[in-house]
Amino acid sequence: MTDRVVVLDDFIPADALSDSLAAAGISADVVHQSEFPSGPGIIALLVGPETTGLEPRHLSDLPDLRLLSATSAGYDHLPVSAAHERGLWVTRAVDYCTEEVADHALALTLGLLRSTHTLDRSVHAGGWDVTAAPPRRIAGTVLGLYGFGRIAGAFALRARAVGMTVLVSGRGLGDRVGELAAEGIEVVGFEDRTSPVAGSSTTTRSEPRCAVDTSPVRPSMFFRTNLPHRTIRSCTSRTS
């Protein structure tokens, strides 16, 4: 019986995955499915973030399974504890769409500050009044990031490139103060409520939220975003 790798993700090209496995000396058939598989011979299961409902009982139906993989950065759609109990390898695409999400976040931020979306709609509706939504200067605007992982780090560098002041807060940043300062990024405490806060998480199921506070004694920008990986993925496109 030929080993099989089952892919529950239409974005993953079977031919490219087969070539990668062959290059690594792994002989296995790659097949796409829309339903959870069962039976012997399946050594790896790749699960896309849109695939929900995978439970420990599904893993029990795969006696030869060795690897359970999320094809996204987030992995809250996988029964990780059950997989560990089985002794399976569990992996994820750690750096999936880091650059794309950071690009998207910067584009939306600039559009918000410059009122491009609002003014564009106004022009299409026959209006021509910049005072209805005055654009704000980008340089000097304070952007805060709460939680400083890969995406936040990439976003911060982009924001600095256009002249924004970037403050960051999060776990494990105490030892990186000097490193980040060299990039023009300041580490602040979360308890400092006069600092803007923006955060991101790809392993939470909470709903995305966003708010802006423009009062002079509060943050220049206040973002609070808790995006499940499925939400992040739906806002970005694949790159080849």
Features:
240 residues, 30% helix, three-stranded parallel sheet, 15% strand, alpha/beta
Entry summary:
It contains eight helices and eight strands; from the N terminus they run βαββαβαβααβαβαβα.
Word description of this protein:
Helices cover 30% and strands 15% of the residues. With 240 residues, the chain is an alpha/beta fold. The longest helix has 17 residues, at 98-114.
- Termini Cα gap: 32 Å
Percent helix range: 25-40%
Characterize the overall form: elongated
Instruction: Output mean pLDDT.
Output: 82
Main sheet attributes: strand count, strand direction, barrel closure: 5 strands, parallel
Strand ordering within the main sheet: 2-1-3-4-5
What is Rg?
22 Å
- Element-level helix/strand string: EHEEHEHEHHEHEHEH
Q: Give start-end ranges of low-pLDDT stretches.
A: 193-219, 222-240
Structural class by helix and strand composition: alpha/beta
Q: Beta-strand percentage? A: 5-15%
Helices, by number, come to 8
Which helices and strands occur, and which strands form pairs?
Layout: E1 4-8, H1 14-23, E2 29-32, E3 42-47, H2 56-60, E4 67-70, H3 80-85, E5 89-91, H4 98-114, H5 116-124, E6 142-146, H6 150-161, E7 165-169, H7 177-182, E8 185-187, H8 229-234
Parallel strand pairs: 1-2, 1-3, 3-4, 4-5, 6-7, 7-8
Helix pairs in contact: 4-6
